[in-house]
User: Fold these one by one.
Assistant:
Number 1:
Amino acid sequence: MISPKAFYETLTEAGVNFAVGVPDSLLKEFCAYVDAALPRDRHLISANEGSAVAIATGVQLATGGVPLVYLQNSGLGNTINPLLSLADPEVYSVPMVLLIGWRGKPGVKDEPQHVKQGRVTTAMLEAMEIPWRALDGEPEAADENGRWAVAEARRLGGPVVLLARKGAFGTAEEKRIPSARGDGLLTREAAIEAVTASLPETVTVVSTTGHISRELYEQRVNAQQDRSSDFLTVGSMGHSSQIALGIALTRRDHPVVCLDGDGAALMHMGGLATIGTSDASGYVHVVLNNGVHGSVGGQPTVGFDVSLTGVARASGYPVVRGPVTDAGAIRETIAAALEQRGPAFVEIHVQPGARDDLGRPKETPAENKRMFVERLRSQ
Ligand SMILES: Cc1ncc(C[n+]2csc(CCOP(=O)(O)OP(=O)(O)O)c2C)c(N)n1
């Protein structure tokens, strides 16, 4: 396995002077090392992967070094525009190395939302004319590929990719001590339970990518509740609030609740302005803020450093509540928000972490969609 420390040192020796990205589960140990070892002026977690490419561009323009951008291949789509119209050798010609976690790599079993993205990842890079190499767990090859990537980015004057396979990285040599800011707060599971307990059966729920959808699903199964009211957005991080908006705008008779994460809300925060200024009066946007990207390893977001309710207020939501922190207040706030003319925004502060034995939906995304659509259109 590759040592995160040794690999980052190889990149640094070759000319990498800054790291920026959105965390990924396959790169969890590498991300943890970088987050612990690098000072704040050398590492940043960005809101989305496209912003990471833009930040890297600014760093490169200012310093002449070769920045590192890390991401999961799910985020490749977010990078395409700035890769092709900004950093590309035919536009501003900005050397950078992209370290990408290769979910859904052909031959490796993965969740449905990763299979196609994994299969087409190299073809996408080739279509973009971006040179790439794969990183398996072999340390010497990783060292060589790391040097190659930096040199090739310089030679080409553009982005170069390293695709990391599952299990390529060993344990981080340094890890940041987890923040104590979530201590004493409700678990997210308890918060979701309080939310669902306040929802009449007529309410449609759209939940975000990662643990939140998995926890919602598991609770519905355990409580033997109807699951056809829930759209579990397994991929497409940052977009569940807009899916819910599309439903709320076209089904005005129909209350819609989005269960969002802080990382997801921040990823495409412009969407809050779209919701806030819309007349989706039956929409309740709930952000379960744990201050981290919990689903991919607990790397920090700025969720506890900014006021999400402040953003919602400034974005025009007529009803804004929170941060709410206890189960009783969650039940009351959600019930009241459903009665008011929205769009409403409710922020709930919860502690980071999830159960190790958290399950995954048994139905495929296609089955989830079929049940969801049947119920929604028949109401
Ligand atoms: C575009 C994109 N980038 C990255 C990922 C990987 N990813 C899945 S869930 C997640 C973290 C979500 O964080 P948050 O919304 O705060 O919810 P939490 O995991 O804390 O419940 C990330 C980074 C992804 N699925 N899609």
Note: The two ends are 53 Å apart (CA to CA).
Number 2:
Amino acid sequence: MTPFLEMHGISKTFPGVKALNRVDLTLRAGEVHVIAGENGAGKSTLMKIMTGVLRADPGGVIRIEGKDTVIKDPVHARALGISIIYQELAVVNNLTVAENVFLAREPIGPLGLLDKRRMADETRAVLSELEVAIDPSAKVGQLSIGQRQLVEIARAISYRSKLIIMDEPTASLSHHEASTLIRMVRKLASQGIGIVFISHKLDEIFEIADRVSVLRDGETVDSRPIAEMTRDILVRKMVDRDLSQLFGEHHSHATDEVLLSVRALGEKHHGQIGVKVSDVSFDLHRGEILGFFGLVGAGRTEVMEMIFGSRPHVGEVHIGGQKVKISNPSEAIAHGLGFVTEDRKELGLVLGMSVRENFSLTHLSDYCTLDVVSRPRETAACMEFVRSLGIKTPSTEQKVLNLSGGNQQKVVIAKWVARRPRILIVDEPTRGIDIGAKAEVHALLNKLAEEGISIIVVSSDLPEILAISDRVIVLKEGRISGQIDRADATQERVMLAATG
Ligand SMILES: Nc1ncnc2c1ncn2[C@@H]1O[C@H](COP(=O)(O)OP(=O)(O)OP(=O)(O)O)[C@@H](O)[C@H]1O
Ligand SMILES: [Mg+2]
């Protein structure tokens, strides 16, 4: 059978970057095709070419159902049956579910008015086909991220898409939402829709794929049915190293000295929407890596925001034995705290600024003599992190906006680590990061701990928490439901404490 889409010799050059180099790829109807590869390998760029967002360099060929095709723009791509669901969701929060599904192509009734009835009916039909219980008249802003993603899928289906591209769709989903999505994807494929699925999560790749292709430095280095793929081969193809070499052994550097002590931390205003954090008390030792685990919504980020002064709270915080009052992030920073936030786009980075400017934003004075910034010193310090974390960028002057998602995340980590905080909080540090970089981030956190920095790691990735933590605190519905030492921390025990 003629494949739905074939690409031959597709290249894409940006100033200073060859993002894709003569890529070949064949996508078939009814097949889930996973595209794997390191941060910056070219995955998103390839998807943008398929959806008409970017035009490939001259020389390559795209064939759709056997016919040579130039995909002119996103509207044209949609007409050809190609839809994309971005990691950064494209739904409009203050419109209803039905209005989002029909966005920009609303049906008009006989009197020239919006045919709301038809929109609601058709949306309900698509949603019930997907077997999801979402009310078409609900405002999208009230839905969870997982549900919003399902609305995007409903939209893609109602376009009668033949190929649906999902770029890291599970990155911000809870475990439960991710498994719903995976079931949905399998179902769409069984109905003959082709799916392109980008993911950095090995478990997920093996669960969902019919076929895996690997991109490295803009080239296709492998493509095979999942039955012929193993974890070892996949990792080797992606990062050119063995899985077993990637993650080193764990050594604890925790001392007896308590550096941070939190007592009876809780929500200040009652009746606030969301989780109610209450009565959270724990100690953090010098050089310790303390893992914070919990299901999405358990209140982990809220606790960290309270400690960092960006969320009102009651309770006490002591640093180095002294009671401190932190009511905003600058005070937290002055007390030696650092916070790598979970949401890099909103809080972590200024996308229009360069790698260097983002990097030194938090500690520019380190490179100043008598108020004059030494650009060479600043650039050299930035280069050191670019090298040690393997940040893929043509230079430190590149705008962060032009880096791949995972490389942006590395810039956020670099900028906080460079300040040399005494206590570093990292919230979902490896989300969207490839397995090689993940190992580098773990090694970096270990090195910081060895230097006496105390670290709190918040993560939904249970294997990550177990691999990196000296001790694990589990939160459930805003309260501590378990404190488990490394020696006793098994997947089962931690999960049990999280779910109760
Ligand atoms: N608009 C742009 N201008 C300049 N360079 C770009 C632009 N878009 C992407 N790049 C570069 O092209 C390369 C491929 O980026 P791409 O976003 O496709 O990677 P990716 O495989 O999706 O990575 P990730 O896993 O981190 O999302 C990177 O080196 C990136 O910095
Ligand atoms: Mg990407």
Note: The pocket of adenosine-5'-triphosphate (ligand 1) is lined by residues 14, 17, 19, 37, 39-45, 392, 402-407, 434 (CB under 6 Å).
